[in-house]
Each structure stands twice: as C-alpha cells, then as structure tokens.
Amino acid sequence: MNQKLVTKKNRKVRRLNELYPGIRCRVLYQRDYLHLVLKYGLEEPDQMDDAPVPTRLPGLPEVTAVQDEERAG
To answer: Tens digits of per-residue pLDDT, 1-35?
Structure first.
C-alpha cells in the first residue's frame, strides 16, 4: 500500500480516538488482510497470484524437530 495512504489512514484513526475516546478502532493493513485470508483459507491460492505473499505467517513459529544431544548420551 502507498505510504501516503497508510499515513492518512493512521491520521484518521488518531483523530477518531481524540474525538471519541470510548470507541475502539483497529486498523487492518493489506498484510493483515492477506494473513487472515491465508489463515482461514478464504480464497484459493490461484486467486491470490497478483497479491504479494506475506513475509511471515501469523501465529507462533512451529518447531518440527528438536534434537537434544545431551539426553541421547
């Protein structure tokens, strides 16, 4: 997303919080949207060909194998 548009969006949210402190608002950026789409499988992968691939998937990293040489000996 264009940085100018992101700045504008953040400014609007800050202004909303100043005017209406009781309202909670969370900004979703394009990367957040793509993470949700991947996480919940809302679109087929072939439909996301033109969209940038997220650099990191949400959630905790998975450890597939841990080798502890001290226990083995």
So the answer is: 678 888 998 999 999 999 999 998 888 888 888 88
| Cα(33)–Cα(43) distance, integer angstroms | 12
Q: Is residue 72 part of a domain?
A: no
73, part of any domain: no
- Local structure of 71: helix, strand or coil: helix
Q: Which residues does 39 contact at the CB level (< 8 Å), separation at least 6?
A: 57, 58, 59
Q: pTM for the full model?
A: 0.49
Domain count, the chain: 1
pLDDT in tens, 33-47: 888 888 888 876 665
Helix, strand, coil distribution of the chain in percent, nearest 5 = 50, 0, 50
**Residue numbers of the domain that contains 11:** 3-56
